[in-house]
From TrEMBL:
Pfam families: LacAB_rpiB. Keywords: Isomerase. One of its GO terms (molecular function) is ribose-5-phosphate isomerase activity. InterPro entries: RpiB_LacA_LacB (IPR003500), RpiB_LacA_LacB_sf (IPR036569). It comes from Candidatus Harrisonbacteria bacterium CG10_big_fil_rev_8_21_14_0_10_49_15. The keyword Transport does not apply. Belongs to the LacAB/RpiB family. NCBIfam families: PRK05571.1 (NF004051), rpiB_lacA_lacB (TIGR00689). This is Ribose-5-phosphate isomerase. The keyword Manganese does not apply.
Length: 158
């Protein structure tokens, strides 16, 4: 499985750290940019390359980085077959409708199991510990899609 990486300046340092880790683990990695730190670059230029690659290679995965991860996910999700989910650090307070804390790692797990997410959009400005990002990446890569009939049915509708 090829893992496509992409970022702008906001996630550049984190992308480089994750890339190093993935290569050390023996993963096949394709870096779609940015290849240098440039505060004036634009995330769609790089994210679109990674998303298009994932769209054309259903067995692949993408990990994209940006400030909030939201714009990056929006760009990625414009490509047919791409299902990008956003990851925030555990320090970011996510809550359900009853106000109960939602573990962002659980969000990554459910995105894989229920939605067969094939792109992880990492909110780099909300992650202050590289280990947190590594944990999310490992979970994203290791969690299988459930293949439950209801999830397959729902995914087939978009």
């Amino acid at each position: 499985m090829t893992i496509y990486l992409a970022t702008d300046h906001a996630g550049f340092a984190l992308k480089e750290a994750i890339k190093k880790y993935l290569l050390e683990q023996g993963h096949e990695v394709e870096d779609c940019g940015a290849h240098s730190l440039n505060k004036d670059d634009d995330y769609p230029d790089f994210i679109a390359k990674a998303a298009e690659a994932v769209s054309k290679d259903p067995a692949s995965r993408g990990i994209i980085f940006g400030g909030s991860g939201q714009g990056e996910a929006m760009v990625a999700n414009r490509f047919k077959g791409v299902r990008a989910a956003v990851f925030y650090a555990p320090e970011v307070h996510l809550a359900d409708k009853e106000g109960e804390h939602i573990d962002p790692f659980e969000v990554v797990k459910i995105a894989r199991e229920h939605n067969d997410a094939n792109v992880l959009s990492v909110a780099a400005r909300f992650i202050h510990d590289e280990q947190v990002a590594l944990t999310a990446v490992k979970l994203f890569l290791e969690t299988p899609f459930s293949n439950s009939e209801r999830h397959v049915r729902r995914i087939s509708k978009f």
